[in-house]
Amino acid sequence: GSNQKKAPVARSTKAGITFPVGRIQRYLRKGRYADRIGAGAAVYLTAVLEYLVSEIVELSGNAAQDNKKKRIIPRHIQLAVRNDEELNRLFKDVTIASGGVLPNIHSSLIPKKKQKKGTERRHEYRHSHNQRRGRIGCLCRRKSVLKKEWKAFL
């Protein structure tokens, strides 16, 4: 009956978290961060650590999916952390091994005009060819331009 001892319940279970509260408290004591450690300190720190890890794993998983991979690698963690403003600020002085760098090309290095395709390129070549020969006019106007002008005329 009433004399029996209840089964022990882990503090992690009581707090509703997955990370081990007991182990974190042991680290706090062994680390000699203070002479005394409050009862709630380990629970709070454990909850914070669990939240941060879940956030990073979530974003890293998204980065892995974006790269069509099923396994998270350090590169995905790097991309996740550096693309998130708050995590980037938290980990600004942290180097992630094998993380690589964020793809970034300075705007001044990006070419202004887009490369023209097929017919437009040939059209431009004819222009330059005609100009070199001293011909100013261009008879090779694109069909689409002529069609638009014809419709406007009608």
From TrEMBL:
InterPro entries xref list: H2A/H2B/H3, Histone-fold, Histone_H2A, Histone_H2A_C
Entry keyword set: Chromosome, DNA-binding, Nucleosome core, Nucleus
Entry's Gene Ontology molecular function annotations: DNA binding; protein heterodimerization activity; structural constituent of chromatin
Keyword tRNA processing among record annotations: no
Residue ranges occupied by any Histone H2A C-terminal domain in the UniProt entry: 85-118
Broad class of the protein's primary localization: nucleus
Domain Core Histone H2A/H2B/H3 as annotated: residue spans: 4-82
Pfam families in UniProt: Histone (PF00125), Histone_H2A_C (PF16211)
Region: Disordered, residue numbers: 111-130
GO cellular component: nucleosome; nucleus
Cellular localization per UniProt: Nucleus
Subunit structure: The nucleosome is a histone octamer containing two molecules each of H2A, H2B, H3 and H4 assembled in one H3-H4 heterotetramer and two H2A-H2B heterodimers. The octamer wraps approximately 147 bp of DNA.
Protein family per UniProt: Belongs to the histone H2A family.
Annotated protein name in UniProt: Histone H2A
